[in-house]
Write a structure and sequence with these properties.
Elements (H helix, E strand, L loop, with lengths): L1 H18 L3 H8 L5 E7 H10 L3 H8 L1 E10 L2 H13 L6 E8 L2 E10 L2 E10 L3 E11 L1 H11 L1
Antiparallel strand pairs: 1-2, 2-6, 3-4, 4-5, 5-6
Helix pairs in contact: 3-4
Amino acid sequence: MKKILFTLALMIAAATSLSAQNVDDLFKEFRDKPNVQFVNIPKALMSVIANKTNSEETKERLKNIELVRVLQIENDKKLHDQFAKKVKELSKKDYEQMVNSNEEGQKAQILVKTDGEVLKEVLIISIEEDECALVQVCGELRPEDLEKMGDFIK
């Protein structure tokens, strides 16, 4: 009996892990579809951008970013619904939830992976009635870096 229960538990665990999506899977599945905008900014391009700025502080902060990826879906209800379903299946076990908002047809989450005081990855998921977005920033960031970059973007 113990053997049967153990085998059943292993099968359930395997099925659960196979159905869980990771962030890379989401980008790969949706990036080439119609009505999807996908932007990939690797470290090399981040360095070029950093060298174009006049602020030494901004240069240093940008040089700590390894990768930025943005995926946006607009004007496609079917694709929107598929994306929302896949986000629910997204494996979030390695992430800490920083923000979770669910207001009047707008859902937003900010998830982070940390290593001590350093943020290794920031994941922003936004699902609204007519559009969805997924933003991933990887590197070695401190919380104050994000605040400064937010000021820079404004």
